[in-house]
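Ticket #4471: structure output looks truncated?

Reporter: J.K.
Steps to reproduce: submitted the chain below (290 residues) through the standard prediction queue, then opened the result file.
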Amino acid sequence: MKMRVGYARRRYNDKVYETPLVITSYRDEQGTPRNKTLANLGKLPAFIVTLITEALKRGDAGVLEEYVHVKEITHLGSLMIGPAFVALSVLKQLGIVEILKDCLSVKHFIAVIAIVIERVVSPKPLSVMTLRRLYEKEAVAFLLHEKAPSLKTWYGALAQVEEKQEEMLKTLYRRNHVPGKLYLYDITSSYFEGTTCPLAEYGYNRDDKKGKMQVVIGIICDERGCPIWVDVFRGNTSDQTTVRSQLINLKEKLGAEEFIFVGDRGMVTNARIEELEKEGWWKASATSRP
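Returned output as attached by the reporter:
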């Protein structure tokens, strides 16, 4: 199929207007010659139309060198925004972006969103200090159209999230929770390189990092596996001692009345069940697996 540039002409108020088109010729079923428009070039600059016209006449792109010295074009840099865009879109769909905006100042909001997205898309998480230093070069800055707050603001943002945590968790629960009676609970741990965290203690280290202090993190999920509550405990906290506080969270903070609580056999022990039954709050039962 051979293409060329042709012109559609129309007259208006004694003036003739021409619109450049990329067209091709063909014969219909009756053998009559006809033209088919492939592209409208009317919005392109005149020199681009001329360039396309010459390129189609010659049948190659050699004409480019007469207008642009291709070998002299340099690549100054690029920005991959796909992963960050997807992460930000999911945060919006879950209502997290809206809640953070309501609970935090603009600068704190920017810092928290940048930290969260970086943790999601980066193979190796960066420190807050490094993340702030590289912020202007990252996709988040492009997507949020905001400059980097001061380093003090970044650390202050984390403190604000801790202060507003319970309020945000309750709001997210009301927004995203699907009615059901089944709740899943498990814990993990995260180690520290430093020693100043007030909750950091030596304990059973799941990261296989001997000699490192840690904190214990307890997470409750609904029956879909969607996290609905998170608490951070001292690093030497045993699994079973976290159960009671999490049951209270479900009952008093999230309003769950009658529910099934599923956890590891190591944390839902017979002793813990008897303790809860004696308090008169729970009718508990457990099933052991071999």
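Triage note (M.O.): checked the attachment and the full token line is present. The two ends are 73 Å apart (CA to CA).
Status: closed, working as intended.
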